[in-house]
């Protein structure tokens, strides 16, 4: 049964248009950002304002595209079983610099409400590991996010 599911997913992913593939990649990235936002089980006003801004900068989306994808990603993210579902696609498509930008955006969201929850920290660290980033890159992105807060 698992082999059939894998075969279906593989054949389905090959038939996807470049635009749809880009959309899926953006949804994966947004879903990871939402994992951070909802890690402390609250969505602060600061986080809600910052998320679309980060998407326009990090993923080069328009404000309207960002808001549409956030709404769609909220549905997908709620059904997710693990972070791997999102990081696999990102690993296939993002270069190191893009991965670092994503982790930086995650740190900025985590610090947006003025405090870092342990669950936010764990999600970002786990995501960084799944994206095959070095620990030094993770810390560098965290420090940049902290410095941008002041």
Automatic annotation (TrEMBL):
Q: Per the record, a Pfam family?
A: TerB
Q: Where does the signal peptide begin and end?
A: none
Co-chaperone DjlA N-terminal domain span: 27-143
Mind telling me which SUPFAM superfamilies this protein's record contains? TerB-like (SSF158682)
* InterPro entries in the cross-refs: DjlA_N, TerB-like
Q: Which domain of life is it from?
A: Bacteria
What is the protein name given in its UniProt record? Answer: TerB family tellurite resistance protein
Q: Which organism is it from?
A: Shewanella eurypsychrophilus
């Amino acid at each position: 049964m698992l082999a059939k599911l894998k075969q279906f997913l593989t054949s389905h992913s090959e038939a996807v248009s470049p635009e749809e593939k880009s959309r899926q990649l953006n949804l994966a990235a947004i879903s990871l950002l939402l994992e951070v936002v909802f890690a402390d089980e609250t969505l602060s006003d600061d986080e809600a304002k910052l998320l679309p801004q980060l998407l326009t900068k990090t993923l080069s989306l328009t404000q309207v595209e960002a808001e549409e994808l956030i709404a769609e990603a909220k549905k997908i993210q709620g059904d997710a079983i693990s972070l791997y579902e999102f990081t696999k696609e990102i690993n296939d498509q993002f270069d190191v610099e893009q991965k670092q930008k994503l982790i930086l955006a995650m740190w900025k969201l985590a610090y947006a409400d003025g405090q870092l929850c342990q669950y936010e920290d764990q999600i970002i660290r786990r995501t960084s590991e799944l994206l095959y980033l070095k620990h030094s890159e993770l810390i560098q992105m965290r420090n940049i996010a902290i410095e941008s807060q002041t």
